[in-house]
Amino acid sequence: MASATSGTVSTRYAGRRIERVEDTRLLTGRGTFVDDITRPGMLHACFVRSPFARATITGIDTAAALALPGVRAVFTAADLNPDVKEAWHAVAGKDMPDTPRPPLAEGEVKFVGDPVALVIAESRYVAEDAADLVDVGYDPLPAIADFRDALTSDIAVHAAYPDNNAGGLAGAPPDEDTFASAAHVVKEHIYQQMYVPVPIETRGMVVEWAASTGELTIWASTQTPHELRAFGARLLGIPAQHVRVIMRDTGGGFGQKVVPMREDMCIMLAARKVPSPLKWIEDRRENLMSAGQSRHVDGDVRMAFDDDGTILAADIDFIQDVGSYPTPYPVLTTAAIGMFFPGPYRVPKASFNYKTVFSNTAGLHAYRGPWQYETLTREILLDVAARKMGLDPVELRRRNLLRRDEMPYFNPNGMPYDHVAPIETFEQAVKILDHEGFRKEQAEALAQGRYLGLGFSAYIEPTGAATGHLATEGCTIRMEPTGKINVYVNGGSTGNSLETTVIQLTADALGADITDVATIQGDTAVTPYGAGTQGSRSAPMTAGAVNEAGTILRKQLVAMAAARLGVEEAEIELAGSRAVARGDTEKAVTFADLAYRAYYEPQQLPPGMSATLEATARFTAPPTAPIHWANATHACTCEVDLDTGRVHITRYIVSEDVGPMINPNVVEGQIAGGTVQGIGGALLEQLSYDEAGNPLSSTFVDYLLPTATEVPLIEYGHVEIPGPGVGGYKGAGEGGAIGSTPAVINAINDALAPLGVTLTTLPASPAAIVAALERSEGKDH
Q1: What residues are paired with 48 via a beta bridge?
Q2: Any idea where the Aldehyde oxidase/xanthine dehydrogenase a/b hammerhead domain is (predicted)?
Q3: CATH number of the domain enclosing 413
Q4: How far apart are CA 64 and CA 74, in angstroms?
């Protein structure tokens, strides 16, 4: 065990499969979600939304709605929008140029579902009835439904952006000489469809304005309670200390709930204009129609190889759909697609170029690994390249994946990889799979007329990226008079089990029994500032914050115990919620005894010794190690039915390195959740619009989600290379969703390779597979 005063963290609990402390509450239906919040006299909000993708608003008649019994108010842009003071998000900063984002549509609607008016009533039922009575005059206009047409269109989504280019970036220009002289050059055009996070709990908030004190209380479904608090204060122009955000249970976020969106702005603005607390709960149709879109990217990728299959150069040129009113987060992360495109491979030269493009659809929002297109395109391209060179995709990757002894390694775009060994997760996945055994099985199946396929996907991702407000995290640890311990962190837990992992870390930091530790999260009135759950930052940042506060409190406990037992501080060890003199177990004092003296008999402490048993500290990531690089390899096997186009996934393996695991159950749960989302993106999910910009998948009848039928048992392998931070922990939140889609697509393409079929347009739905097979048959004849 580490010395109690050494500042290191012991690991009695970290690394163990501790049962999640929140499960009993959630599984017995005792969770508290936003819709469970009821306040005296609470009113309900419902949005009036545009039925047109683009139209001029010629007038809004609210008389009929206001006449309906139970309706308290109807607000339009003229009522709410002028009250906005500031509307910037911390993820971008106050000085970063931003795209337009009015709370309610002003003058022109930009997509079907654009909020035009806000109805306030005594119940949601009345509010919805009243919304139907609001008479909005529209003069329909031509719309851009397909972002691929936007850059050359005469239609401008926003007048300030006449070419519909929301911004872009280019790296170093392609080395065309290398591409011209290389032994092998492989090119593909790859389109990824629009799909979305669909959290089990939609967006929502309850906002209560106390006019007498000028205080605002918000109960929210959010990943970032402190950012919502700061944003609300800026939005309304009131002191931040007058805003309190309370986040209890949140049923999934996946990036969609990182930053406040336009509806959130409306509810906060409207709350000051009504006499009672105001609740808005988004329904599923609204969520699919208006909460935003993700992934939608179209581009060209190419790689150059020498005779041996060694990568010489890589290039990606793409456009990303940002819809009409994007949130700033994913627009910023679009650059990461280009920067990360070389991936976990030894790539000497790389280039990228991209544009983000407006369209008359819902705005782009973050979704678990918003830069995922770089892995999708690179991994599909590598499999195509391997087939063209007559190599197994396993062998091609082996020749190019980075090794541990090459670290630190700078990719050609300047990304500083370290504390990773991508080849090791790859080889582990290959071993778990039994690659040679599968190839034999595949050949035997093909002889019988069955089409089996194997797909790999390797990636590397930055976690805990410590830039701006993401670079610091706070923690308070308080020992109560009973000796029990509460740890206070910002939270933002949306299924990623911060409730459990932070308790494990705190118990280890203090040498406490885990049953003596509890946590309080998600209440800005009592928790230190934190940036919430985004960018796979929670593990490394909360570990750092708990360690900072725990070191301070541990030092105080050691001093108190040494004085009580009459030994030197260096003799004290903390374990099992007790302080024990090293070598003399008879000399011991419990945390309960120390706390009793500190709170009730402080005069018994030595002169000058503080009675404080509480510590607050902030962890700031060092500039020398701002990124914790995680990596993984996904392997998928499948069988494709040529008649129906159905894909049956037979095995799924993930070998990952997220450093030492605080709780393997939590890590594997994160991988599983992301993997299922990626499988959905590969096979089923698609947020579609027709040529006029009308959404075609606004219910679960049309927007298909993966079920237990489509998802096999996931097998896990773990490689543990410690990261540069406290405990060596790396983030684990996004990798499953990044690596899974290309692994599935590669498995399908491998199965169909004997027929000359390669799918590069997603999703690989049954209809798409059958159509591709028919096209291939047509070419053969």
Answers
A1: 117
A2: 28-142
A3: 3.30.365.10
A4: 11
Q: Give the integer Cα–Cα distance in Å for 571 and 424.
A: 42
What is the model's pLDDT at position 318?
98
Domain of 515? Answer: 23-31+469-620
Residues 6+ apart with CB under 8 A from 634: 429, 456, 457, 458, 652, 653, 654, 675, 739, 740, 742, 743
Q: How far is CA 710 from CA 642, 650, 744, 751, in A?
A: 17, 10, 12, 17
Average pLDDT score over the chain = 95
CA distance 221 to 768: 37
- 50 and 27 in a common domain: no
What lies within 8 Å, CB to CB, of 97 at 6+ separation is: none
Q: Are residues 444 and 492 in the same domain?
A: no
Given a contact cutoff of 8 angstroms between Cβ atoms, the answer to whether 325 and 311 are in contact is no
Q: Quick one: tokens of 613?
A: 């048993």
Length of the chain: 781
Residue 61 maps to a domain: yes
DSSP character at residue 689:
B
Please provide the DSSP assignment of 212-262 as one string.
TTTEEEEEE--S-HHHHHHHHHHHHT--GGGEEEE-------TTTTSS--H
- 676-709 per-position pLDDT tens digit: 999 999 999 999 999 999 999 999 999 999 999 8
pLDDT tens digits along 298-312: 999 999 999 999 999
Q: Is residue 522 situated within a structural domain? A: yes
3-state secondary structure of 303: strand
Kindly state whether residues 539 and 687 are assigned to the same domain.
Answer: no
Q: In terms of Cα–Cα distance, which of 683, 685, 654, 684 is closest to 670?
A: 654
Please name the residues in contact with 343: beta carbons below 8 A apart, sequence gap of 6 or more. Answer: 374, 375, 378, 379, 458, 459, 460
How would you list the strands of the sheet with 485-489, edge to edge? Answer: 517-521, 485-489, 472-479, 614-620
Strand segments, DSSP code E, in 468-511 are 472-479, 485-489
CA-CA distance, 744 to 682, in Å (whole number)?
6
User: Looking at the 3D structure of the chain, how many domains does it have?
Assistant: 3
**Two structure tokens written together for 417:** 């990889």
**Which residues are CB-contacts of 126 (< 8 A; sequence separation ≥ 6)?**
44, 68, 69, 70, 71
